[in-house]
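Continuing from the previous page of notes. For each protein in this section, the sequence appears first, followed by its structure tokens. Read the first protein now.
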Amino acid sequence: MSDLSRALSICTDEVQHHYRAMGGSNQYDGFMNWHIPAFVLLIYQGKVGSDLLPYRAWHKTENLQALVKLKLEDTEPNKETLEEYVESVTSQIPRFKNEKEVSQWLNFVKEFNLAP
């Protein structure tokens, strides 16, 4: 497992933990599980505040953003690893059994230019 792959996994777990620990108070209207890996990918690409996620995904998450950025900053950019990460997430999204979640993730990936 590459450093980037390991860091992406750790960051995804951190973001997921953040939203789960905060429960309803920090899971904003329209929250979907695909927002978690999308959050990580956007920070990795330096697109904090991107309109590819709802405003509330970025609102009051400055500490979380800083943590993710710190954990990713010493990793080597690697398109293959990013593609593997996207493929892994894509394979897991359907288990939420929400067609809207699947289609929104796929649209995000297309916008992000990492379609599997």
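Done with the first. The second protein uses the same format. Note its length before scrolling.
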Amino acid sequence: MIKNGIEVVKRNGINYLHMNGRKIKHKPWLGDIFSFLYDFIMSKSIFPKKFEASIEKHTLFLKNEFSSVHNSNVLELATGSGNLSEILPCDNNYMGIDISEGLLRIAYKKFTKAGFKNPELFVCSAEELPFQDKLFDICICNLSLNFFSDLNSVIKEVKRVLKNQGIFICSVPVAERNQKQSVIQGELYSENELKEIFEMKGFRFTSYDFRNGALLYFKLISKD
């Protein structure tokens, strides 16, 4: 499951990566000490004020999309506080990554409470995944694609760890749907830019006919 040369040390349900006897470190998330406020900020500020979107519509759409996903190997990029635990059926094999230890601790409690058996959470970046090739059926990235500093590396890594014809589902704010020009952190792409970027990396791009403020929802299929 883990690439050769990487050692995994688990503490309190969280996996830490080591190489050559040293812990692999990442630039800390600035808001890590405020992890306990993450869900409150998302529901009361980010969704209604930045995205001009409904968090309830967001959750319902994803629940409908993933309701038929069972017994699959699922990877989530930027797990955050673990809200996918309320969306994804618990008979799936879940692995999630994030650079925030504080958020992963919250996520671990949510996934175990939701009935997931052995959810695996890793402190690592999406630019360099620790997993072996062709391991996952589905990869998910909600509301975080705009934060990755090296999107090309992220896409390359996702392509590597997905099985042939594997599915990558994303939601992300896009420039043309930001009608009030709200200040949204990270780099905002357009739908056309995302389509071009992903298709150049070997994915088939399809956007969903679903509107929710500044958010775009799309599906990618990994082509052979």
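What the second structure shows: The mean pLDDT is 95. The chain has five helices and ten strands. We return to this in next week's lecture.
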